[in-house]
Amino acid sequence: MTLPLVLWYTGRKVSQTLQNTSMLKVRNLASLKVSGLQTTDWLQSRNYQYVLSLVFAIEEINRNPYLTLLPNVSLGYEFHSVLHTDRRTLESSLTWLTGRVKYIPNYTCRKESKSVAVITGHTWTSSAQIGILLQFYRFPQLTFGPFEPILSDNGQFPFLYQMAPKDTTLALGVVFLMVHFSWNWVGLIISEDEKGIRFLSDVRGVMDRNGVCMAFVNMIPVTMLLYFTRAHQHYNQIMKSSAQVVIVFGDTESLLAVGFNGWDNVVTQRVWVTTSQWDVTNSKKPFILDPFHGALIFSHHHGEISGLKHFIQTVNPAKYPEDTYLARLWWMHFNCSVSESECKTLESCSSKGSLACLPRHHFDMAVRDGSYNIYNAVYAVAHTLHDMLLQQVDGQPVKKGKGPVFSPWQLHPFLKNIKFNNPAGDPVSMNQKGQLDREYDILNFWNLPEGLGHKMKVGTFSSYLPQGQQLSLSEDKIEWATGDRQTPNSACSASSGPGFRKSPQEGKPACCFDCTPCPEDEIANQTADMDQCVKCPAHQYANTERTTCLQKSVTFLAYEDPLGKTLACTALCFSALSAAFLGVFVKHRDTPIVKANNRALSYILLISLTFCFLCSLLFIGRPSSATCILQETTFGLVFTVAISTVLAKTVTVILAFKVAVPGRRMRWWLVSGAPNFIIPSCSLIQLTLCGVWLGSSPPFVDTDTHSEHGCIIITCNKGSVTAFYCALGYLGSLALGTFTVAFLARNLPDTFNEAKFLTFSMLVFCSVWLTFLPVHHSTKGKVMVAVEVFSILASSAGLLGCIFALHFYIMLIRPERIGSSE
Fold first, then answer.
1. CA distance 250 to 273
2. Are 820 and 751 in contact (CB under 8 A)?
3. What domain count does the chain have?
């Protein structure tokens, strides 16, 4: 028993029917000539591989030596070729259904049809047109073209089965390829149909998530009129774009192919990323092939069909003498003649030539996805028939020894649930809902030397593998369009190297940016294109290149530093000088020059100035909790004592001159020693402020990581800023008050009157500290500490020099002017 299948493919219709195990039957030479044997259609010859795949699969099943699949049953086939018009597709369908050239709908002249299934393709439009007609007959239809979601609509096509796997992760694979090569500026050329728009939506979403931008989107119209209207615009858009990588999505039958046939120069120096649905070798012009050298092609992975390539290489008119199209190919390419009397190719031509010798743009020996899908479709039908016959063989009537008789619609319950592994080892499932996207092979198109047309597998993509392992590439095998091994670059902006970050350009995509150096203490240590710089930790700093963080060195105003050593020596010298002044005053304590200005207050002032000089040493060296507390409190107290002593001396001078006037009541103040209470009173206020300060928020050891580049400065934090400025403000107010009082008493007459010296000393003191405040706030780090130490030394030296220098000079250099109290 022979059960034929029906194959529909795209091309010129050269015969109506192919039955049983024969190929195309030649009727007469005249009809061949009328059919246009003098010219061959390149598209038809390339699609002829589909016919050979069908024949190979059927013969392989029929020759099954183990008789495990369809024993005692042979498969046959019919073959129909249609053009790209709805009318011719419908005509061919009705011709096959009715069995007549002049077809009559819903009528057949065939007494008995043994066709069990229809295999259609390779465009979804032709499958849809045939499917709409066949659904009225519930005829099983298997398509071998690319997967099309529209054909999966059970409402419109309830009896249609797609053999191709889904392309749900194609966009993901393409974008991952872009990311792998750091191509973030790419163009996109798609056919302006539903499938192209859906791919555009998918790929745009994946691009946005992975930092890839579209330089342009070139949508090729599906109608010839619109195409020629926009052709020049599309050409200019591609040529003017800086994108060196272009994604092409469409099929060979669309006007996408027409466009590239006309754009001879557009492909130069571009890297094309496409799918096996759009064949880069589809042009009739050999010279257009060379610019496609280096294209990367995504193709569904499938196993090797054992024996298919050998079958295609060895097929010839002698092996299939009834195949008119095979004879036509030999007549065109191998100079064979046809015998008019015998209606077959001459025997002298039967052993000449092979399809493997034809140019690749006429016939490609590489197994196409459609051929593989046809192979699986034949086996799917065979397995379905096998299961159905096993179940029905006992209950079916036998007609004239031909075996069971059934209708094609009876296959559906079995066909939609069939699962098997084909001879290549790949699983095949007809469950459309559970059909998953297969792994992709990434092919590299080699066409140097021109005409080679070889597709080298250079990688794979599988969405089922863990993240980071989905894309696998052998970059050393890739030949690029530029002709060298260096990977091309396609970016809107040059990469931002280490030490720089991306700064977006206003009004442009995210992939277009300027490179901006990282701010201080921030780094960009990745190879390229960081959106934000990374701030170094507080204990580290950025190198000058802004590429790495270095450990900061710990620093403070140390005694070993030249500045610290100088300040420390100065403080010790001045404290020694103060002690020397004190010794001189003690030695000459009974002289008029000492008695005239209250020698007790002079002693207190010299002692306090000695401590003022020494307290500056607390600011030098590595800070500790003890030194931080003592720094400010000691400074505040000793200076308060010193200034209050100056105030007491000034008041004493004033009272002394006021008492000299008869009847003055101030004599009691002088006799009672009231000025001596100024020092403890003023000191007590400062002591109270310091106590509140220490009780609320005392000073503590702190680190300054920002003042000096590359250094961590250990400093004393003031703690309560309010308490600090209260203590400092009180000291300043006391100094200003003392200066005012001294200024008012500056002109009092007397040989040893200190009023002028006290006024000048307080002027120096106030000037130093008024200068200190802005300088102190404008400096940072250990320099700020040095400024504070210098201010302490300068103000103390001002008091010491202005008040006691002249006295010291007289007592040591001019002792004759001292006089004697005795």
1. 12
2. no
3. 3
